Amino acid sequence: MKEFFLKPEVLLTLSLVVCTFIIHRFIIWSAVKLSKKVSRSELRKQYLNRYTGYVIWSVCAIAIILVWGSTTEGFWVALGSAFAVVGVALFANWSILSNITASFILYFTFPYKIGDRIRIHDKDLPVTAVISDIKGFYTLLITDEGELITYPNNLLLQKGVSILQEKKDSIFDTHSQDEDPTTL
To answer: Which of 118, 162, 169 has its CA nearest to residue 140?
Structure first.
């Protein structure tokens, strides 16, 4: 039994698991510290912890498989097949990947936070609403009429967005000549 634990594969596996655990905890600690500094919600911290955990532990699992099966050619065939399937799935659903990436960008660059009143400058469907939650794929917006809108995170980065302080309208809102903008 003692000989089993002294195998290089076992030692490397234990090292990988310990290093991955330490790296994951460090990232969580850093995110909590950043979240307190910029006043982010608990829910957004949980999303960040979950998604980074998926990525870090998946890389660790792949590394462990490589440690234990580095001499097997079947492993490379299976890995190539898995990457081909994932590649086709991501190509077909590229917007899912871009929404997850946008969620991370929104989290770390924090242009908007929950509770901000924003105006999205879209020529087809302009939206003025309050951010009620920012999730992994979309942002929940509540309009003055009480509508709940799910807006994709990648569009928040692509469209012009104004953060409205105490005003109901943005300076970019257009009004007709006879309309008084102060009465809106």
So the answer is: 118
